[in-house]
Write a structure and sequence with these properties.
The chain is an alpha/beta fold. Helix content is 22%, strand content 27%. It has 3 helices and 11 strands; from the N terminus they run βαβββββαβββββα. The strands form 2 sheets. Strands 1, 2, 6, 7, 8, 9, 10 and 11 form an 8-stranded mixed β-sheet that branches.
């Protein structure tokens, strides 16, 4: 999804301290308005949140099993998910007017971004037609078992995107137990992380891998 010729480069921002969810939503809304008005360039914002649950526009209230942490209405597509320390959230504020107004293609490109990021750590991530996000096969758990390692949810305003992806680096996986993650109830589908798979990497290393994987997918090439 390369931008139109002469487009400004995408800005990257990394927050070193956890960002409250309401603060992040407000900042995204303001930035998207500026992007749509031509006052600011596109932005990828890398951050972590304190422990919390978010409900997308398709969330089933019954999927909140136990409100262990604050619950926020996210306004994005998708269902219930968890955010917390050890998870790299990447909010992508991308102007689809300059890249082609194709939301399905944008979502597929976000998935590919995650798959290429995981490949940098020798993890094979895969997409599924019936389950959004990025999954890894878990033959160690049994035939047909798969775990989600990265979630995805977006919203589009004036053809500018909000929200983005969340990659599990080393979060407390027990925190996902308070919800039905993304509404997937079947026992053979769970949640994993790079650390759970035996890959101990720093958040800075993940950020570098995400930056490298992003460039050929979203930035202009000569």
């Amino acid at each position: 999804m390369a931008p139109a010729p002469a487009s400004a480069p995408v800005e990257w921002r990394v927050s070193d301290s956890p960002v409250g969810y309401a603060d992040a939503l407000a900042a995204m809304e303001a930035r998207v308005a500026d992007i749509a008005a031509g006052r600011a360039p596109e932005l990828v914002w890398l951050l972590e949140h304190p422990p919390l649950y978010t409900a997308g526009t398709s969330a089933d209230p019954a999927d909140l099993r136990e409100a262990r942490f604050p619950v926020f209405e996210a306004g994005r597509g998708g269902q219930m998910t968890y955010h917390g320390p050890g998870q790299r959230v990447a909010y992508a504020m991308i102007d689809l007017r300059r890249r082609g107004p194709d939301v399905r293609r944008f979502v597929a490109t976000l998935e590919e971004w995650l798959i290429r990021t995981l490949a940098a750590f020798n993890v094979t991530g895969e997409r599924r037609e019936d389950r959004i996000g990025v999954w890894v096969r878990r033959p160690d758990k049994g035939e047909g078992y798969e775990d989600k390692i990265a979630a995805l949810g977006i919203r589009v305003k004036q053809w500018v995107t909000l929200h983005g992806v969340a990659l599990n680096v080393e979060p407390d996986l027990s925190h996902f137990g308070g919800i039905v993650p993304c509404g997937v109830k079947e026992q053979r589908y769970g949640v994993t992380s790079l650390a759970d798979l035996g890959h101990i990497v720093s958040m800075a290393e993940v950020d570098m891998a995400m930056r490298r994987a992003f460039s050929p997918l979203f930035e202009a090439t000569s």
